[in-house]
Automatic annotation (TrEMBL):
This is Pyridoxamine 5'-phosphate oxidase N-terminal domain-containing protein. InterPro entries: Pyridox_Oxase_FMN-dep, Pyridox_Oxase_N, Split_barrel_FMN-bd. NCBIfam families: PPOX_FMN_DR2398 (TIGR04025). Residues 29-147 form the Pyridoxamine 5'-phosphate oxidase N-terminal domain. It comes from Paraburkholderia susongensis.
Length: 205
């Protein structure tokens, strides 16, 4: 078991200079292109109740570049657990990983978050007249791209590797098993799964 940084570093080569130089403290023209093309990102936060890693997605460019040191991420309807936002209030440090379908490289942004409910800002993110409850403003500390090795190893974008959804437990089956196991009574998994697609469509925004 490794217990020191020295033990860890002894197992690895020194990072190449270009791996370090690709990190900058602002969104330049190249990194802007990645953010504006990304329809999906993963938001990582930390707080007193633990860590959170949450998916975020919308039309490409859904994370707005306010300026080279500031991003804005609208909080669209979800499960209302508020895990990420609770964490940001307790500890503003966060990270975003932007992913673009078909592209090997991903983009990391490390920064600090602030939560706004300014009416004008919310209105600027309206979709079909529906506003987000809040907008997460991100003060950028570091931006850098990850090479394509992870995507290549996982074959993430290879259609031949896509998994049929029916091969996995459905959302209703997962909930039913948890509820019954924990003594929560009966749960109609079939009805839940039947109504889920319409419920998702009607609550996207």
């Amino acid at each position: 078991m490794l217990t020191t940084i020295e033990q860890l570093e002894a197992l690895y080569d020194q990072p190449q200079e270009r791996a370090l130089r690709k990190e900058i403290a602002y969104v330049n023209e190249d990194y802007r292109a990645f953010i504006e093309a990304a329809p999906f990102a993963v938001l990582a936060t930390s707080g007193p109740d633990g860590l959170d890693c949450s998916p975020r997605g919308d039309a490409p460019g859904f994370v707005r570049i306010v300026d080279e040191r500031t991003l804005a991420l609208p909080d669209r309807p979800g499960n209302n657990r508020l895990d990420s936002l609770r964490n940001v209030i307790a500890d503003p440090r966060l990270a975003l990983l932007f992913v673009i379908p078909g592209v090997g490289e991903s983009l990391r942004v490390n920064g600090r978050g602030r939560i706004s409910n300014d009416p004008a800002l919310l209105d600027s993110f309206a979709v079909d007249g529906k506003l987000p409850r809040t907008v997460l403003l991100i003060d950028v500390d570091a931006v850098y791209f990850h090479c394509s090795k992870a995507m290549a190893r996982s074959k993430l974008w290879d259609p031949a590797q896509h998994v049929e959804r029916s091969q996995l437990p459905s959302a209703g089956e997962i909930l039913r098993r948890i509820i019954v196991t924990n003594g929560g009574g009966q749960f109609d998994a079939a009805a839940y799964d039947r109504d889920l697609p319409a419920r998702v469509r009607s609550t996207l925004y």
